[in-house]
Design goal:
Layout (H helix, E strand, L loop, with lengths): L5 H49 L1 E3 L5 E3 L15 E7 L2 E4 L20 E7 L5 E10 L8 E9 H53 L14 H48 L4 H27 L6 E2 H12 L3 H4 L2 E5 L5 E2 L3 H18 L3 E9 L2 E8 L6 H12 L14 H12 L3 E6 L4 E8 L6
Parallel strand pairs: 9-11
Antiparallel strand pairs: 1-2, 3-4, 3-7, 5-6, 6-7, 8-10, 11-12, 12-14, 13-14
């Protein structure tokens, strides 16, 4: 299963965190609102209790009663949600709203003027918020103690809290969406340097840059420095490997040249083994030449560049000095500005082999055509010679590219130029193919295009 991208993970985590934070904040606000409403309700009940106590009066027969009732109509409506109750002189006075019920105050020892708050069951199974006070009436009312209570149905407080949450929900959702979008924008801005790193690594791979550089955010500079150090170490290793390959070439060429000299002397002396030794030495030299070419191309860096037009013009000038080249007409259609990702020496070796073959087999003319095709440069070398039957082209390419598997004589002078050109093309992520022309043969070399180094 494909893992989520870093951006997706951060966006999801940020959205979840914002949602949880907004949800917790909403619950906290709801709790604060509920506490505030309850405090306001208790303050209102305290005022109502003051009004109830202030309305106490004494009749002519000495009976205490509530002469002035609270103005709120809920006290008079049965189960209206607001209730008062007074216990005095063995009697229980209560609001009409209680109907045939009473507030079940718990046994409580209150000092004079003290208040207690309770949550008690009320009429019809409702929950009540109750405030009670114990006072001693003045002398004119008999100086007797009484216990008065005023209660409110808690359903009103719960309804207010629910209404607050309903009003808060859309604003909380809007705030969560805004914060999530802000978080997404912050993540996009924060991860933008990673896109720059990606583009620079791609430029390194295409050979358009040599280093990542240090013009990056401080957190990414150590990473870029390590990558650049790795690139520098690789370039140093490649340089040493090239030197070793050159040393190997020189070390092998001298013994082979000496062996060929000995073979020549044996042939001159009429010894038949001289020709056999010479053939073996030539095969060995061909294999060494080919393998060194492959190794050299494999070691080249992606920063290599070769300009096609100038290199083709130079090769044609050289081959025109040869006997075969001087007798041919040369047509060059290579526009300026075509650059391939290859060392000039490697491209020169591959093209030189193809152009030399074309000059040797042409009847009168050789054409060299180059053009850019997408991410590749196509270079065609076309001669007007006898050509090769289509059914033999594949076999020729196979012999050329696999000369080392055909025995010592197969690689000596037969298909070696094509083999080297083919190996160089493959090492450069390109290709070499042969196609019948009318008349003649077209050798088509395709190599990766490159841009000038930054």
């Amino acid at each position: 299963m494909r893992r989520l991208s870093l951006r997706a993970r951060l966006v999801i985590a940020g959205t979840v965190a914002v949602s949880l934070a907004i949800g917790a904040a909403s619950l906290g606000l709801s709790a604060l609102f509920s506490a505030h409403v309850e405090r306001r309700a208790l303050a209102e009940l305290s005022v109502q209790l003051d009004q109830v106590l202030a309305g106490m009066a004494r009749g002519a027969d000495g009976t205490l009663f509530l002469a002035t009732r609270p103005a709120d109509p809920r006290f008079e409506r049965p189960y209206g949600g607001l209730y008062w109750q007074i216990a005095v002189a063995g009697r229980l006075l209560r609001a009409r709203a209680l109907w045939d019920s009473e507030i079940p105050l718990p046994p409580d020892d209150l000092r004079d003027g003290a208040e207690h708050v309770h949550e008690l069951p009320g009429p019809g199974g409702t929950a009540l918020l109750v405030i009670e006070r114990s006072v001693t009436l003045p002398e004119r009312l008999g100086a007797v103690p009484l216990r008065a209570a005023v209660a409110m149905d808690r359903a009103e407080l719960s309804a207010a809290q629910a209404e607050f949450l309903r009003d808060l929900a859309p604003y909380s959702a809007l705030l969560a969406a805004i914060l999530a979008l802000a978080g997404w924008a912050q993540i996009a801005v924060g991860l933008r340097p990673l896109a720059a790193i990606r583009d620079r690594v791609a430029a390194l791979r295409r050979g358009q840059a040599r280093r990542l550089g240090d013009d990056l955010p401080a957190e990414l500079v150590p990473l870029a420095a390590e990558v650049d150090a790795l690139l520098a170490a690789r370039e140093s290793e490649l340089a040493r490997a090239r030197s070793r390959a050159g040393d190997l070439a020189h070390g092998l060429k001298t013994p082979l040249q000496a062996l060929l000299g000995e073979a020549g002397r044996l042939s001159t002396a009429g010894r038949p083994e001289g020709a056999e030794i010479a053939a073996i030495a030539e095969a060995m030299r061909a294999h060494v030449t080919r393998e060194l070419a492959r190794t050299r191309v494999a070691m080249q860096g992606r920063a290599a560049r070769a300009e096609v037009a100038g290199l083709v013009a130079g090769l044609v000038r050289v081959i025109r000095r040869t006997e075969a080249g001087a007798a041919r007409r040369w047509q060059e259609a290579v526009p300026a500005g075509l650059i391939v990702a290859a060392e000039p020496g490697d491209l020169s070796e591959a093209l030189g082999a193809l152009i030399e073959n074309a000059a040797r087999h042409a009847r009168g003319a050789v054409r060299i055509v180059a053009a850019r095709e997408g991410a590749q440069i196509r270079i065609s070398v076309i001669d007007d010679g006898p050509g090769i039957p289509p059914e033999q082209i594949e076999a020729l390419m196979q012999r050329g590219t696999r000369a080392d598997m055909q025995g010592p004589k197969a690689g000596a002078g037969q298909g070696l130029g094509l083999a080297i050109a083919h190996d160089i093309a493959e090492a450069l992520d390109g290709s070499l193919s042969l196609h019948p022309a009318a008349p003649g043969l077209e050798a088509r070399l395709r190599l990766p295009a490159a841009e000038p180094l930054n």
